[in-house]
Design brief:
This protein is of the alpha+beta class. Helix content is 63%, strand content 13%.
């Protein structure tokens, strides 16, 4: 049980570090609603394209999913 608690604490620390990185980057992280507006794609299409490997990867932080704006802009420009 102690090992599980240690692992949870480590995962929490990593999650907090990721959140801080996302907040401090000049490359603003976008959630699905913003990504949909920028790309003019629906949620299902975005996730299908991710599965195909034809859309930028997302980053999970807690229960939220983010994309980096630069990745989205680069994807748009490459189309």
């Amino acid at each position: 049980m102690s090992d599980i608690n240690e692992l949870r604490n480590e995962m929490d620390a990593v999650t907090l570090e990721m959140i801080n990185l996302l907040k401090t980057r000049t490359d603003i992280a976008k959630q699905i609603g913003e990504v949909k507006k920028i790309t003019k794609l629906g949620t299902t299409t975005i996730y299908n394209k991710m599965k195909e490997g034809t859309f930028p990867k997302s980053y999970k932080v807690g229960n939220r999913t983010y994309w980096l704006k630069s990745d989205i802009i680069e994807w748009i420009n490459s189309r």
